[in-house]
Specification:
- The complex is a heterotrimer of chains A (534), B (390) and C (253).
- With 534 residues, chain A is an alpha+beta fold.
- Helix content of chain A is 68%, strand content 6%.
- Chain A is elongated.
- Helices cover 72% and strands 2% of the residues of chain B.
- In chain B, a hairpin with a 2-residue loop joins strand 2 and strand 3.
- Chain B is globular, with a radius of gyration of 23 Å.
- In chain C, helix 4 packs parallel to helix 7.
- The chains are: A alpha+beta (534), B mainly alpha (390), C alpha/beta (253).
- Chains in contact: A-B, A-C, B-C.
- Chain A binds chain B through residues 269, 271, 325, 328-329, 333-339, 341-346, 348-350, 352-353, 461, 465, 468-469, 472, 503-504, 506-507, 510-511, 513-515, 517-519, 521, and chain B through 74, 151-152, 154-161, 163-165, 167-169, 171-172, 175-176, 178-179, 290-291, 294, 297-298, 301, 331, 334-335, 337-342, 344-346, 349.
Chain lengths: 534, 390, 253
Amino acid sequence: MFIRLFSLILLILSVAVPVKAQSDPKSLIDALSKADFTEAEKLIGQIAATGDTRVVTALEAFAEGDLYFRKSDNLVFIAKAAGSNVELIDPLTGASAGAAPKNTVTKIRVNNNLRRVIRSAMGGLTLLSPDRTVRLQAADAVLRSPSPENLELVEAALAKETDGEVKARMEEARAVSVLSSNRSVDEKRAAIETIKNLGGRNALGILNSVSGSIDPSLKGDLDAAISSIESELQLWDMAQNVWYGLSLGSVLLLAAIGLAITFGVMGIINMAHGEMVMLGAYSTFVVQDAIRSNAPGLFDWSLAIALPVAFLVTGAVGFVIERGVIRFLYGRPLETLLATWGVSLILQQAIRSIFGPTNQEVGNPSWMSGSFALGGLTITWNRLWIVVFSLSIFVALLVVMKKSAYGLNMRAVTQNRRMASSMGIRTPWVDALTFALGSGIAGIAGVALSQIDNVSPNLGQSYIIDSFMVVVFGGVGNLWGTLVGALSLGVLNKFLEPSVGAVLGKILVLVLIILFIQKRPRGLFALKGRAVEA
Amino acid sequence: MITGFILRALEGKIVIAVAILLGVAILVPALNLLALPDSALHIPTYLMALMGKYLCYALLALALDLVWGYCGILSLGHGAFFALGGYAMGMYLMRQIGSRGVYGNPILPDFMVFLNWKELPWFWYGFDWFAFATVMVLFVPGLLAFVFGWFAFRSRVNGVYLSIITQAMTYALMLAFFRNDMGFGGNNGLTDFKDIIGFPVQADGTRAVLFAMSAIMLALCLVIASAIVRSKFGKVLVGVRDAESRVRFLGFRVENIKLFTFVVSAMMAGVAGALFVPQVGIINPGEFAPANSIEVVVWTAVGGRGTLIGPIIGAVLVNAGKSFFTGAFPEFWLYALGGLFIAVTLFLPRGIVGTIQHGFKARQALKAAAEAEKGRGDEETVARAVQAAE
Amino acid sequence: MNTIAETRTKSLLYLENVSVSFDGFKALNSLSFVVEPGELRAIIGPNGAGKTTMMDIITGKTRPDTGTVLFEDQIDLTKKDEADIAQLGIGRKFQKPTVFESHTVWDNLELALNRDRGVFATLFYTLSPEDKARIEEILETIRLTHRKDELAANLSHGQKQWLEIGMLLAQEPKLLLVDEPVAGMTDAETIETAELLKEIAKTRSVVVVEHDMGFIRDLGVKVTCLAEGSVLAEGSIDFVSNDPKVIENYLGR
C-alpha cells in the first residue's frame, strides 16, 4: 500500500517536474545566443524539459550548426544561406522571418559533446510525439544510449502513454536510464529485473557497462541478471546454429534428393548428377535473361517459370543419358560410374563452350531478399525459402513414390525386374522415366541453388561428393534416410564450424562419415536380411 | 622359395616389357645427352621430361590395376597415395633448398617464414636426409592404405561404397592440404626445388637419371606385380574379385588379402609420385583432386584392366593424347576424355590389351579346334584350345 | 534332460534354440538340430523354411539373435567368422554353384587345398608332390581328370556342382554342408551325385539340403523336415513323409 502510494507520489512528481520547469521555450532558445558550452548544455536540458515538441526542429538545426542569432537583438533563428543574404526562420514556428545580410547574424557554435547532448535530449523529446512510430523509435533510441538526464522525460512520457507496445518499450527505456541515474537501490533492483527480462546483447551490454559503478548491494542481482542473459544468449546462439545447420542440411537435401532416386532406388552411380544440378542453375540463368530483355515486370516470377523449364531440360538430358549410355551398363555399377563421369566432363565442357567459364549472374527476386528477426534469430528469406522448398520437394517425391501408379511400377521394377516385366510393366520405359525424374529433380534443385551459389560450369562438382555422402550415410534406397542424413550432416557441420573452422569442420565430417560407413556399411536406415546380400 | 616367386614372374610378355623399359631407360637419356642437338635422333629435354611424367603415370596406373583389375577394388583415391609420395619427396627437396630460398632461412622453407613460423614442425624432421625421405615415400602412403583398408575391409565395405569412400578420403585430404596451417605450403604446395642428392634438379644430367630411374622403377614394380599375380596368392586375389564369399568359405581371410594388395599398391603409387615431383618441379594439393584419381581409372580401363601391360600402355596413350589435344585444341580435350570414358566402358570393356589378347586366343582356339576335328578328335586338345580361347 | 546331455557329448554340430529375425520376419524360430560325427543327414522343407539361413548361421555368415551353436561340443561358432569356421573344418557348397570361373579346374582345387592360407604362405607357395597327388586323387573322385586344364567357366552345370564338391573335399572338412547339390542335374548325374555323397560320408559328416525326394530316397538316410524356422519332423524318409504335419506343410496331399 505504502509503496503504491509512494510510486503514485513519484509519478505525480515526475509529471509535475517538466510542468514546473516549463517556461517559455522561445526565451530558453534565445538564451542560447549568450551561452558558453557549459551553459548551452544546461539550456538544452531545459529546452527539452519543456516537453514542447516544437523545439525539435530548433535542436536539430543546432546540432547541424544552422542556428544563428541576430547581433542586433540577440534573437535566435534558423538560418539558410540565400545568395549573399541568409533567410531567417523562426526556430519554433518555422515561419520565415525575412532575409538578412550575412554579417548581421552570428552562428551559435556547437561541439561534439553538445551534439551528443542534443541527440539524447531529442530522443527524450520525441517520446511525446503524437506519432506512435516516432515514440517507439524514440524509446528505442533511449534504450540504445541511456542517460540519466532523460529519465524524467521518459517517466513523463510513460505516464501519458496508452499504447501497450510503446509503453512496454518505454518501461525498458526507463529501467535502462534508472541504472545510470542516482535513484534508490530498490528502483535500480527493479530496473535490473526489467532489463534482464528484456534480454539480448544490448541488455547485456548495458548491464556490463554499469557493473563497475553499481551500488555494491546490487552486485549480486546484477551478476545474476548478466549470467541469466548470457545463458539465454547461448541458447539463441545454439538455435541460430541449428537454423544454419538446417539451412545447410536443406541445401544438401536438395542436392542429394535426385541422387536418392538414381543411386538410392535404381542403383546407378550417377557421377553426372552434379552436372544436372548445374544445368538446372543455367536454365534459371537463361530464363532470367529472357525475362530481363522481354518482360522485366515478370522478374519476381522468374524462379517459378524456371522450375518447370529446369525440370524438363534436365529430365530430357537424363532421359537421353539413360537411353544412350546407362541402359547398356545395368548390373555393372563400376562401369556406370566411369561412363557417367565421362558424361559429366562432356556436359561441363559444353556449358563452358556455350556460356564461358566465368560465373553467371543470377538475381534474387524481391521476395527472396532481405531477412527478418525471430526472437534472437536472424533468418534470411532466401534460406527460409530453400528450407521450405527442399522439404516440399521431398514430400512431393514421397507422395509420387508411395501413392502414384507410376511409383508403384517403379518400386516393382527395382524390387524384381523380371517379375515386373512379366506382369506387363514396360521396364525399360520405367527405367528411363525414373532416371529422368531423378535428373529433373536435380535440375529443380539447381534452380534453388542458383540463388545461393555461384553459377559456373563447376557448380556440380562441388555437390557431387556431398550428395553421395548424404545418400550413403542415410542408407541407400530409403528417402527418409536421405532426409535425416542431409539434415543431421548439415547441423553437425555447423556445430563443428565455430570451434574448428569451416574447412576443418568439413574434413571432420567427411572422416566421421567414412568411419560411420565402416561401422554400418549400409547407412543409418539400412535394410536387413538375405535379400539385401543377394 | 623367393627365387621361385621371382622366376614365376618372368613369363614371356613380362620379360619383353621389362627389356623394353630397360632399353628406354638407357636409350632416351643417351639420345638426350649424347646426340647432337641438331641431329634427327636428338631427344630434347622437354620431351624427355614429358616421357618421364608418362612413366610415372604408368606406374600409378599399374598400381591401380593391381587392386582393381585383380582384386576388384575400384579405388577412386589412388591419386592420394601418389600425392603423398610426391609430398614426401617434395619435403626432401624443400629442405635441400637451404638458405637459397627467397628469405634465406637455412632451416625453414620460404612458405613457413612467410607465415611467420618460428621453428620446423616435428613432421618435417628427418626430411633433410634422402634415405629417410625414401622410406617415407613408401611408408606414408602404405600407412594410410593400411589404416583405411584395415577398417574398410574388416567391416566389408564393398564395391561402390568402397569407391565412394576412397573418393571422400582423397577429397578430405585435398581440403586438408589446402590449409596453410597443415604445414605443407597450402595452396601453392612445394616448389622452387634446387637440387636432389647434391645434383641440380634442372640439369640435363639429373633429368636423364630421373628419367632412367622412372623406367627402372616401373620395370621393377612390373616384375613385383607379375610375381604377385602369378603366385597362388594372385589366384586367390582373382578369386576374391570373382567370388568373394567362396574364398571366404574356403577359409581365406579376405580382409588380409585385400589389405596386403591395397598397401602394396599404395606404396607403388607413392613411388610414382616421388619420381613425378622432381621431374615436374612442383607438388600441390590439386594432385589430391578426386578428378585426378578417376582419370587414372580411365587410363587403366583403356589399356585393359586385369592385364599388367595394359595400364602402362593406357597411361602413356591417354596422356600423350592429352598433351596433343591440350596443345592443339584445348577446348576439345574434355570432350575427348569424356567420350573416352563412355566409349571404353561401352565398346571396349576389356581395354586395348585385353581385347587383343582375347582375339588372339580365340583365333588360336579356332585353329586348334579345327586340327582336333581333323585328327583323332582328341578331347585334350580341344579342351586346351577352348581354355586358350578364354 | 539326460538324452540332451548324452547327445551333447558326442555331437559334431549342436544347435539349440537358435532364433534369428530379419526386420520382424522370424527366419529361424528356436531351432534345435544335432549332427553326429560320420553322419549323413538330409534336410527338406518348403521355401522360406530357414534351410539356407541355418547354413548361414553354422558357417558364420549370419549371427543368431539367440541360441547356442557348438562345433565338436566346445567351439562356439557364433563367435567366429566364415574364414575361422572354414579352417575349423566346416565346408559349404552354395545353392548356386560357385567356383572360380576364370581359373582352371586344377587351380580351383589347388586354392581349396587345406594348406596355410596366410598372405605370405600363399605368395611363396610352390606345388609339392603330395599336393599334386592329392589334387589328382580328388579329380578322379569328382570325375574331372580329363578337363583339369580347362577353365571352370566352360564346365557344364553338373560338372560345376561336382567341382565345388571337389573343392570342399580338398578342404578336408569334418562337416560338409551341401545346399541343393542336384538342382539342374540330369537323372544320371543325380544318381552319380548320390553315390559321390555316400562315398564322402564314409569319412566325414555331411548335411544335404535338397528338394528332390527321389534323390533323398537314394541317399537312404535320416531326414529332418524344417518349416517356418523350426523342426517339424525327424526320422527315416518313410517316417517323415507319412507325418501329417509334413504332408500339410511341404509335400502336399
